[in-house]
Design goal:
alpha/beta
């Protein structure tokens, strides 16, 4: 199982604040939609054993933080490639599914998910709780007993020098850097911190690079 956790710092949790005609104006929701597409789709097909989790929900900046961390009343929207139906890779289609998920947020009680459509769920969880769930084999169906948490960051070790993990959970930020609280959390919990190349890439491009790295067993098999 490959999993990607993408933090959307500016995406509103209110579905009424999302216009399908202005996705960049909804906290750069266009970028998160492209991350979903890069994560679950192939050319004329869909990947197997991949999940993309979008963590959204703003909170006020406190303690002089450079960026507001995703708040306690946050939501995680999960796209499961193995059970997705009727989803297309264009940004507008993915954004409509995200908006539907946020519209169902009242059905997410505690940590029980709201079922949005086949392969799409929403949970009332922020980053910390989402990582707890993904790294706990009993809390994430299909997970191995030893998932590896990997932070994708431009200051990490080169991807080419790392060995591909068998059950990775990659965490990356949107167009903003990680907030200080998120950096502290990942410093404590991530087993690895890697960068995908010498240049700073869009988050969705980073997802594609990581897929290629895993597809080729660390660029060793084509």
């Amino acid at each position: 199982m490959r999993q990607f956790v993408v933090i959307g710092h500016d995406v509103p949790a209110d579905p009424d604040a999302i216009s399908l005609s202005d996705l960049p104006g909804a906290g750069r929701l266009d970028l998160l939609c492209r991350c979903v597409a890069a994560g679950v789709f192939l050319s004329h097909g869909i990947r197997e054993a991949v999940r993309v989790h979008l963590v959204v929900g703003r909170s006020p900046t406190d303690g002089g933080a450079e960026r507001p961390a995703v708040g306690a009343d946050a939501f995680t929207i999960t796209f499961d490639a193995d059970s997705l139906r009727h989803l297309h890779p264009d940004e507008r289609n993915v954004a409509a599914r995200i908006r539907d998920a946020l519209d169902a947020r009242d059905d997410a009680i505690g940590h029980m998910p709201a079922d949005v459509s086949p392969g799409v769920e929403l949970r009332r969880m922020g980053l910390d709780a989402t990582l707890d769930r993904l790294l706990d084999a009993s809390g994430a169906a299909g997970a191995s007993t030893d998932p590896t948490l990997v932070q994708l960051h431009e200051d990490g070790d080169p991807l080419v020098d790392a060995a591909p993990p068998s059950d990775p959970v990659f965490v990356l930020s949107d167009h903003n850097d990680f907030a200080p609280a998120e950096r502290d959390l990942l410093a404590d919990r991530a087993e690895r911190r890697v960068r995908v190349g010498p240049k700073r890439l869009h988050a969705d491009h980073a997802v594609s690079v990581v897929h290629n790295w895993l597809d080729t067993d660390g660029y060793a098999s084509y």
